[in-house]
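Batch job 17 of 40 flagged for manual review because the log was empty.
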Amino acid sequence: MNDTGDPYEKTFAALPPAPGRAFARTWWGQAWLRALEESALDGDQVRHGRRVARSGAVGAVSVRPGGLTAVVRDRDGTAHRTDVLVQEFSPAEWDRLLGLAAAESGYIAALLDREVPPELAQDAAAAGVELLPGIGDFDPRCDCGEWDHCPHTAALCHQVARLLDQDPFVLLLLRGRGERELLDGLEARSAANARARTPDGGVPSDPGVPAEQAYAAARDGLPSLPPPPDLPRTAGQPPALDTEDEPAGLDVDAVEFLARAAAAEALRMLAEALAPGHADRPAPAPLTRAEDAVRLTREADDVRVRSRLAAATGRSRADMERAVLAWGFGAAPGLAALEDDWTPDRAALARARAALAAAPTDGEAGAEAPVLRRVRARWTQTGAGRQIRLGREGRWWPYRREEGRWIPAGPSAPDPASALEAAGPTD
């Protein structure tokens, strides 16, 4: 590190290439990279930037309150002035952070040992001070012309993760305070805390009030809970796993696909949880492995992934495509209508017959009702290429015969007539 004489700016010499090396080993360095991956709109730029940083193309890094600067070179030697801006803390935020750190002697000792206690970051976040950056906290600037993260800004962020591993005070300098000023502030806070104690080293004699009494006094004046945050428009990007030295036996493409699918499913579940009336609806049954394989196949664009999921569940490619179609029409109940060839009990069969008898005739007034032949829970219209299936949940599912196979034709209906109409015109 080169000290410029300015306590608010430090310059770190260029680091050597790091082939196959993890860019962050500490939890705070990993959190820094996670913020980069979640902030970037294009994951390919982040992966490209990782390769650039790995090659040693990032020059000396200048760190100052609110920003990073370095020269990053392309493979052809073209140099780019690259900056990444980070939000500084306000005086009030610094006051809260220093108060929290000075209140625990273990926090000060950890900082002096160049470590960031995770409890300090958690306490600070609870007090409204986000010590580590999150989504949208990076403001990339590069003379290459990109308006979002480019390979050069992504490479700079990866290089800074290595610096953060060595010295977490780099992060605190970015937030607005140099190491000396920060330590002086902690020392002053610690001395003030010590003076607040009684001469014998104990705690002040005021016994306070019982927790129950304090809660009862404040209960009526408690503020209402804030509204839930807005639902994200898209699922976040999972961390990129492509490295020059892939772990043996690990299918990186498959793991990245599962991470993307998990993020999309988490967003769907969050949307359901925030929807009106969610608390009044019963929790859905957990998916079986076979059901979850169909759900994942529906989200997979890669033919290889779809083929592997089909083989893992004992389905042919054609059977899996039909299963995916059924899932799209009705999730797990739709898939059950395709693959669960069950026999209704007497009560369910009586209700089905009553519904069929009450169904209007197909076509113009005066036309005869369609002739349906039942096999277990499936009613097939004779010579028409249409079929309706009764699900265990009591709804009717339309099917149509195509090339000798019964294909799901739409979502379920509450009555057999609607389902039969949804199956399409007769052949």
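Reviewer: the log was empty due to a logging misconfiguration, but the result itself is present. Residues 252-274 form the longest helix (23 residues). Unflagging and moving on to job 18.
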